[in-house]
Amino acid sequence: MPSKRTRFTTLDAVLILAIVAFAAIFLWRVHATLDYQWRWHLLANYLLRWDEAAGRWVPGLITQGLLTTIRLSIWTMLLATVIGVIMGLARCGKSLFPRMVGWTYVEVVRNIPPLVLIFIFYFFLADQLITLLGVEVMLRNLPDWGKELLTWMAVPVDRMPNFLAALLTLAVYQGAYITEHVRSGIQSIERGQREAAYALGLSPWQQMRHVILPQAVSRIVPPLSGQFIATIKDTAIVSVISVQELTFQGLELMASTYMTFEIMITITVLYLLLTLTFSTLAGRVERRLRRAYG
Known about the structure:
Layout: H1 10-33, H2 44-47, E1 48-51, E2 56-59, H3 61-92, H4 96-110, H5 114-133, H6 135-140, H7 144-153, H8 160-187, H9 191-199, H10 204-234, H11 246-257, H12 260-293
Antiparallel strand pairs: 1-2
Helix pairs in contact: 3-4, 3-8, 3-11, 4-8, 5-8, 8-10, 9-10, 10-12, 11-12
């Protein structure tokens, strides 16, 4: 089907001019009425600073928060995808018990506010689980190279308990939504595909692996990319349990420097850069899958 060509009309020009005019008036009002001393020149030090002791440039507080946000987002996406795929397959299975487990997980997690879920995990489950497994002792006994590797891949060892609590919470929360994306993707495959695979003598696992999943993946990726973008934004909520991600560092800096607008505008731009970059990459993956599977 030929794509419909986009035309630039007079109405488009009028709407664009109206938006530009509104933005100009808004900025003028802010400049004229807001009694605020802008200090953009101080912001660079919070992005990148020269460390005299190390003799090199090191990330500032905002950049450190940004790196923590990126690491937390990546680990959350990986863990949430694993949870979502397992629960999604369980929801599509023929056995009653796995279907009930998947349904209960989705309904319980999706109907609890994420902030409440974070407090439950942080103060009850994660704390008990980390203590029971002896994670803190294990982290303290790591060799130096192990601690450096952990710092590079996640956060320094002393901040790891909070990071793990945040990771578990976000993964469980996002996993519930990914479960539904996986379930709907699998169930959207036409019945005839299963019947054809059965007629060829494939076992249920072979049908899923060679016929259903390859086609379902191309349908799961678009909603999944949206869910991953939501994961990046949702990392901001774990600032309430002192995970030093981007929002947490911004709030701390605002409290100590009173550079409210400069810091919040910078944080907004950084979140936009993160999500738009990921959205662009996801769009390329979608186009490749569409070409591969039609």
